[in-house]
Design brief:
- It is a single chain.
- The chain is mainly alpha-helical and 146 residues long.
- The protein is built from 8 helices and no strands.
- The chain is globular.
- The mean pLDDT is 84.
Length: 146
């Protein structure tokens, strides 16, 4: 529970770093890497089935923020390789944990899909992450009704 409380307090701080400190690449990288870690499920050997899943709770907290997905998509235009890489990983984690909410957000944000498609022209690692994200996005579209 402590992780959830800390992240509930920490998400606004992390998002503020992404919005207001974009010139400080190291801070943006650190914030993105922290967010990726907060949304990545931790595999427990034999935990109770009704145990709180921090990754899912953190996904819900982050995806509730009105501008968070738009902010993340805007980071894909940054020059820094790791900023784009961690942003794609973060979007993939959000999609994995909460597919409907992220899919709806990406589709309603102007140029949302275009920004993701632009990543296909990047380096191999970025292209692979973008392909993975787009694959998950289109796979979930098969099961969603619009």
């Amino acid at each position: 529970m402590r992780i959830l409380v800390q992240m509930k307090i920490g998400f606004p701080v992390m998002l503020a770093v992404l919005k207001e400190e974009r010139d400080d690449v190291e801070m943006v990288r650190g914030a993105l890497e922290t967010l990726v870690g907060a949304l990545t499920p931790i595999e427990h050997a034999k935990g109770p089935k009704n145990e709180v899943q921090p990754a899912l709770m953190n996904t819900d907290l982050l995806s509730r923020e009105a501008d968070s997905i738009s902010l993340l998509l805007s980071l894909l235009s940054e020059e820094d390789f790791y900023v784009r890489y961690y942003t794609l990983q973060l979007l993939t984690a959000l999609l994995t944990n909460s597919p409907n909410r992220l899919q709806e957000a990406i589709l309603t944000i102007p140029r949302g899909i275009t920004r993701l498609m632009d990543m296909l022209m990047d380096r191999e690692v970025i292209r692979n992450e973008a392909l993975l994200l787009l694959t998950y996005l289109t796979r979930e579209a098969e099961f969603c009704e619009f």
